[in-house]
């Protein structure tokens, strides 16, 4: 399917579907999945990267098990707003996934998501070694939670319309 806009997500997530979030790294893929009410992002174990076909098979099996209707991928944008090689790798991953899956993908600016995830793990008193094994899924959850919060605000703004003027 390829890339869709965040505004298209609600139509894709009907019928008890969940939304998945990914943080693509060179060695791992961090994964998080929403609840069915799209309120909370829940980290899942990381996928250790080997080669694309194996990574994709493991990821698609997980997404099917979690009943994912769409996937959010963190787009690593530079601090100046430009896209570098890592962003191009994320776009290439989506192009490759679109050839083997009909799942839609949404790109989400992931600037500082790993930093925020690491700070959260430090606040939770995780040791450096334990953080290393959880950081990518924590970053995926941080990315996904950002999208879930945005969906909630889009839903709230669609419900609130200005009151008609009162007849005085």
Query: Could you say which structural class the secondary elements and strand pairing correspond to?
Result: alpha/beta
The largest beta-sheet arranges its strands as 1-6-5-2-3-4
Low-confidence stretches: none
Roughly what is the average pLDDT, rounded to an integer? 84
In what range is the share of β-strand residues? Answer: 15-25%
The first-to-last residue Cα distance is 53 Å
Q: How many strands, what sense, and barrel or not for the largest sheet? A: 6 strands, mixed
Oligomer: single chain
| Count of discrete alpha- or pi-helical segments spanning 4 or more residues | 5
Protein name: Putative pre-16S rRNA nuclease
Function: Could be a nuclease involved in processing of the 5'-end of pre-16S rRNA.
Organism: Mesorhizobium newzealandense
EC number: 3.1.-.-
Task: Write a structural description.
The chain has about 170 residues and is of the alpha/beta class. The chain is about 45% helix and about 25% strand. It is built from five helices and six strands. It has helices at about 10, 50-65, 85-100, 115-125, 130-160; strands at about 1-5, 20-25, 30-35, 40-50, 70-75, 105-110. The chain has a six-stranded mixed β-sheet with strand order 1-6-5-2-3-4, with helices on both faces. Helix 4 packs across helix 5 (about 130-160). The protein is globular, with a radius of gyration of 17 Å. It starts with a strand and ends in a 9-residue tail after the last helix. The model has no long low-confidence stretch (mean pLDDT about 85). It is an enzyme of class 3 (hydrolase). It comes from Mesorhizobium newzealandense. InterPro entries: RNaseH-like_sf, YqgF, YqgF/RNaseH-like_dom, YqgF/RNaseH-like_dom_sf.
């Amino acid at each position: 399917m390829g890339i869709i806009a965040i505004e298209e997500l609600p139509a894709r997530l009907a019928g008890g579907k969940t939304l998945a979030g990914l943080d693509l790294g060179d060695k791992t893929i961090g994964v998080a999945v929403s609840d069915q009410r799209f309120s909370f992002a829940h980290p899942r174990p990381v996928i250790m990267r080997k080669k694309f076909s194996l990574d994709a098979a493991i990821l698609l099996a997980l997404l099917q098990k979690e009943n994912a209707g769409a996937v959010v991928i963190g787009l690593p944008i530079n601090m100046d707003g430009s896209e570098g090689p890592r962003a191009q790798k994320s776009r290439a991953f989506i192009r490759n996934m679109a050839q083997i899956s009909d799942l839609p993908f949404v790109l989400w600016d992931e600037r500082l998501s790993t930093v925020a995830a690491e700070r959260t793990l430090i606040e939770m008193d995780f040791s450096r070694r334990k953080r290393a094994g959880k950081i990518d899924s924590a970053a995926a959850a941080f990315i996904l939670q950002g999208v879930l919060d945005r969906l909630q605000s889009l839903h709230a703004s669609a419900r609130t319309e200005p009151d008609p003027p009162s007849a005085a």
